[in-house]
Amino acid sequence: MGLFGGTFDPVHRGHIQVALDASEALEIDDFRLLPAGDPPHRMGTHAPAADRVAMLELALRGYSGLSIDTREVDREGPSYMVDTLEELRQAHPDAPLVLVLGQDAANGLHRWHRWQRLPALAHLVVMTRPGERPMYGGQLGTALAHRETREIARLKDSTAGLLLHLDVSQMDVSSTEIRRRIAAGDPVVTLLPPGVLGYIEEHGLYRDVRAL
């Protein structure tokens, strides 16, 4: 099972490409996108959870191997990835779990709640774009030392504990830039999956530049 978390505020083509690239490279049939409820280590979201989930549903139409897991949105209180992984590990004790994240997120993993527990619950697969590099210092570097593998097949031989870096050519797009463009009235149609822009316009999302 593959897991890719984010605020998806809004979901854009770069998110979908990461999910597709990761699921294909890792040969994962059950790949889930996890919209965050209230991410404690980031600023609050700009669109309500229901709208972010609805946009994800539109974005994933036609992709049979990708699905949405709403447990973090449904959970009351702060949204912690470690809680999600513990729930999934309890439900699937013998299945390999793969947490997919970007290099920036991986470099800041030591700021996540109970981050030391993550390698015991899932494999970590870091999607690295050109120009990015791992920066695992201090306790994080110690915790990840000797976990790295270059063999994708090894992820299926154990349930958790390995670190794999995947080189990707990701779209140069961010949700922050999309929100800015929408507030300014600039075009964003090429950056969003089909149906998402229509939903944003219909529900009046991201119009207030002061909220960016």
Automatic annotation (TrEMBL):
InterPro entries in the record: Cyt_trans-like, NadD/NMNAT, Rossmann-like_a/b/a_fold
Known EC number: 2.7.7.18
Statement: the UniProt record of this protein carries the keyword Cytoplasm: no
One of the GO biological process terms: NAD+ biosynthetic process
The Cytidyltransferase-like domain, residue ranges: 3-181
Family: Belongs to the NadD family.
NCBIfam families noted in UniProt: nicotinate (nicotinamide) nucleotide adenylyltransferase, PRK00071.1-1, PRK00071.1-3
Function according to Swiss-Prot or TrEMBL: Catalyzes the reversible adenylation of nicotinate mononucleotide (NaMN) to nicotinic acid adenine dinucleotide (NaAD).
Entry protein name: Probable nicotinate-nucleotide adenylyltransferase
Organism: Marinihelvus fidelis
